[in-house]
Write a structure and sequence with these properties.
There is one protein chain. By secondary structure, this protein is α+β, with helices and mostly antiparallel strands. The protein has one domain: Protein Transport Mog1p, Chain A. The chain is 20% helix and 38% strand. A 7-stranded antiparallel beta sheet has the order 3-4-5-9-8-7-6. α1 crosses α3. The longest helix has 15 residues. The radius of gyration is 16 Å and the shape is globular.
Length: 198
């Protein structure tokens, strides 16, 4: 039976932290995984954002409303290798300027690492400017151990260029397997956007 990724603590900070920051052993080649994936995608509009997931096999998608800001959780199918979980969290009332996104992203990443039981240290070589679709911000990767499972985590925090709205997107998979899911990350994250322009 395949061991599922544990549902970990939500990745981004709440309103107070954002405001505070504003104020101051089987090896599978990634190409083989890509070839096996379908081109068909389901498109969704939930919690004010649009995103898409694979249809064949069907990736599960649900909304988690346990925190102040709800998240979309997308999980790979039962037999998918490696197992993947995406978490997309919009912050529609948070708007930051291009000069602020670095500080916001850095604070969010430190906060997230501590929620995963890691020290809140982000090295400069792991804090990289990145664009994901219409969002421009910063991305980091780190390793974590949750409920006895070793994970590799990719975490992006960005702002939409035209209005400064903030979003966070997190991908987690088995330890060392991020290169195997890079196409999944790109395909999912690059289509995310807010559905309204308010």
């Amino acid at each position: 039976m395949k061991k599922q990724l544990p549902r970990c603590v939500k990745p981004l900070l709440g309103l107070a932290l954002v405001l505070a920051v504003n104020a101051s052993s089987q090896e599978v080649a990634s190409t083989s995984i890509t070839i096996l994936q379908p081109r068909d995608m389901n498109r969704y509009h939930k919690i004010g954002i649009r995103y898409e997931t694979y249809t064949k096999p069907l990736w599960r998608s649900e909304v988690d409303r346990t925190n102040r800001y709800p998240s979309v959780i997308v999980n790979s199918p039962e037999l998918h290798f490696p197992p993947v979980e995406f978490q997309i969290t919009p912050f529609p009332d948070q708007r930051v300027g291009p000069e602020q996104i670095r500080a916001v992203a850095l604070a969010a990443m430190k906060h997230t690492k501590t929620r995963y039981g890691r020290k809140p240290i982000i090295s400069s070589e792991r804090f990289l400017p990145r664009s994901r679709g219409v969002f421009h911000g910063f991305e980091t990767t780190f390793d974590a151990r949750v409920e006895g499972v070793d994970l590799s985590v990719l975490y992006f925090v960005g702002r939409r260029e035209r209005d400064g709205r903030v979003i966070s997107m997190l991908a987690k998979t088995q330890h060392g397997r991020l290169p195997h899911i890079k196409d999944h990350i790109r395909r999912t994250f690059d289509w995310v956007d807010y559905v309204s322009n308010e």
